[in-house]
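Predict structure. Chain length: 142.
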Amino acid sequence: MIFSKAIWHIKIYFLIKNIDNQLQKNGFKFVYDTYFTNNKAGVTKLRDLTSEELEFIEMIIDLIEKICLNFYGNTRCLHKSIAGYQIFSTKNLPIDLVIGVMKKPFTAHAWLEFNKQVLNDFPENLEGLQVQLHTRKENKVN
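Prediction complete.
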């Protein structure tokens, strides 16, 4: 498990670096085109998760948090959520990327969900946000 965690640490670092480069180069258009119009990662049909999958999700979210905390760039919720979504999609886990906004004061936020349950944030942090983009809804998958 330790070896696997070390490998994931390296993979996640380079994934976040790539996401940061894409966001700097193409802005939000990169996110919208990749995950909400063309969705190259794909959306997995909802199902129950095994205990091993739950442990994997917890490990990945924890690693992403730690890497983003120490990342030399300016990583935010979007970096974290995209990285998690990409990893979980490759493992065919039914995790969704969600983006919400609040008008006053203007705030935008990204997070991951499983069956409407927030995974990488506290539900209190999402109060007042209106969901604008949701991978499951935009790509019409249940």
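Summary: Residues 2-138 form one domain.
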